[in-house]
Amino acid sequence: MTDLLRIKNVSKQYVMDGVVFQALNNVSLTIKKGEFVAIMGPSGSGKSTLMHIIGCLDRPTSGNVYIEEHDIFTANDAELAEIRNTHIGFVFQQFNLLRRTSSLDNVMLPLVYAKVAPRERKSRAIDMLKEVGLAEKMSNFPSQLSGGQQQRVAIARALVSRPSIILADEPTGNLDSKSGRDIMDIFESLYRKGSTIVLVTHDEDVAHHAKRIIRITDGKIISDGKSKRI
Ligand SMILES: Nc1ncnc2c1ncn2[C@@H]1O[C@H](COP(=O)(O)OP(=O)(O)O)[C@@H](O)[C@H]1O
Ligand SMILES: [Mg+2]
Fold first, then answer.
1. Ion ligand 2 contact residues with beta carbon within 5 A
2. Is any ligand 1 atom within 6 A of the Cβ of residue 23?
């Protein structure tokens, strides 16, 4: 299958009070279309830093990142935003929904940025909310939803722009175990329909939904291989 994402010798340094901290150290990896990958590692190992670079939310200090034919390192800020809007669907641990905004409006928002016509925005957002099982909750604000339901809205929002890759940074981290399983069922079903998914988790059970597990420690990949399904 074709390579969707290529990362070559990526390093990321943060400078705090004049001290350089190496958050990623010469990371290389390739993700093909249709893969379901989990990234695991201790707290502070660089997982979110890596996801932010993959998701075009941040740039590496050195190295190359390619999403399909796009070279992230040479893209200017406007090009980076465009690549992000068209290729990346991001799901966060804290859901990051707009608070005074209904489920439907939250899900429609990426399509406003993508300049999709209002009528199509609405029908696509409704379809996505139905797909994550929230047909009854379209008008609810986030505060009127459970954590699991809020995360389902966030997944619908990530998917509505039909991104080439779905990135989820500890998506079950703030959920009880039942809601967490429901969210993983949604990711499994997206994978079976052909989506490409990269998911960060602390939880071995969650990671084993993925077909490949990449482990990182101190900003370096220490293993990368097939997951042993439980
Ligand atoms: N914006 C930042 N400025 C300075 N240091 C940062 C910044 N973001 C992350 N770090 C540091 O980089 C390391 C990796 O962070 P992160 O990628 O968030 O780890 P993880 O997601 O694996 O817990 C941590 O030591 C963290 O303190
Ligand atoms: Mg993190």
1. 47-48
2. yes
